[in-house]
Design brief:
Blueprint: H1 3-37, E1 46-51, E2 54-58, H2 60-75, H3 80-94, H4 121-124, H5 127-138, H6 149-157, H7 169-179, E3 187-190, H8 201-212, E4 217-221, E5 227-232, H9 242-255, H10 257-260, E6 262-267, E7 270-273, E8 279-281, E9 290-295
Antiparallel strand pairs: 1-2, 1-3, 4-5, 5-9, 6-7, 6-9, 7-8
Helix pairs in contact: 2-3, 2-5, 2-9, 3-6, 3-7
Length: 297
């Protein structure tokens, strides 16, 4: 090839490189403009309980209802098996959502029917009342702890499809184990940035005492407008079970972090942080009998 041809080839190659560079740059600019005009939707908020390497998910709304059901069981001193049965029942009856409709006059988390003596329509749509009524029925079932979930749930519910409860048992057991404190650091939530406009220390204290009983809560305001709330768990259960019950309260708090606008939960030497969504080792461990909630500021 002559020198002239080589120069022409180089010029042609350079022109191709320039054209490709311009094209790539143009495509990148278009993509950037489209992303700004039509940003990707945020990832879905989910909560998880993990057992044996499998994560069982719920929406934040389902998680807060699961937290109430478990906390009621903990407050009553019921075994984790009772919570598993209650969660499996609510998952089947309402998908753990406090619905205002159902088959015939069935309503609420457990689809309880006013016409069958469960209470008024307003009462059975109150999650606290509905959960209490379910446990009231369950504890009258002889040997319920050793019964299959289907039989125990059916003895309370009198459902037309009693075998359907079984499909929810594994997920219910994972969540029950976490929310009763038997499986520490296994319940997490992936949540968006908190809505600080709805954050309220008073609301958090009220939620603690609604779900877990009259526990003392020490509120300490923070400079950013948020607060820490130290929950005294010593009134729950026997002292020898303190570590487990501290974890029960802590993982209850993670489950209600979305509606309560919590940014962190601390227990023992672990902290769940809303930004990372996981449990990590804390720089300053908390004493037994204390679970610390951090409210968005």
């Amino acid at each position: 090839m002559t020198a002239r041809r080589r120069r022409r080839a180089r010029r042609a190659g350079l022109a191709v490189v320039v054209a490709v560079t311009v094209l790539v740059g143009g495509v990148a600019a278009v993509v950037t403009a489209l992303n700004r005009s039509f940003p990707s939707p945020p990832s879905a908020e989910r909560c998880f309980a993990e057992v044996d390497g499998t994560r069982w998910s719920m929406s934040p709304d389902q998680a807060q209802n699961a937290a109430l059901i478990a906390a009621t069981g903990v407050q009553r001193g019921l075994p984790a098996r009772a919570v598993t049965i209650a969660l499996a029942t609510a998952l089947q009856e309402s998908r753990l959502v406090n619905v205002a409709y159902g088959d015939r006059d069935s309503l609420g988390l457990f689809q309880q029917r006013p016409s069958q003596g469960w209470g008024t329509a307003e009462q059975v749509q109150d999650p606290v009342y509905a959960t209490g009524k379910f446990y009231d029925g369950l504890v009258t079932v002889a040997g319920y702890e050793n019964l299959p979930v289907t039989e125990a749930a059916q003895a309370v519910q009198r459902s037309g499809f009693p075998d359907a409860y079984a499909q929810h048992e594994t997920r219910a057991r994972a969540w029950a184990s976490a929310l009763t404190g038997w499986s520490p650091a296994t319940l997490t939530c992936d949540l968006h940035v908190p809505d600080t406009g709805t954050a309220s220390a008073d609301a958090v204290v009220a939620r603690v005492q609604r779900d877990l009983g009259a526990l003392p809560v020490l509120v300490t305001p923070l400079p950013d407008g948020g607060a820490t709330l130290d929950v005294d768990t010593s009134a729950i259960g026997p002292e020898g079970d303190r570590a487990r019950l501290d974890w029960a309260v802590a993982q209850w708090a993670v489950s209600v972090a979305h509606p309560m606008q919590l940014t962190a939960v601390g227990v023992a030497d672990q902290t769940w942080d809303r930004t990372g969504g996981t449990w990590t080792t804390a720089t300053a461990p908390l004493p037994a009998g204390t679970t610390r909630l951090t409210l968005a500021g």
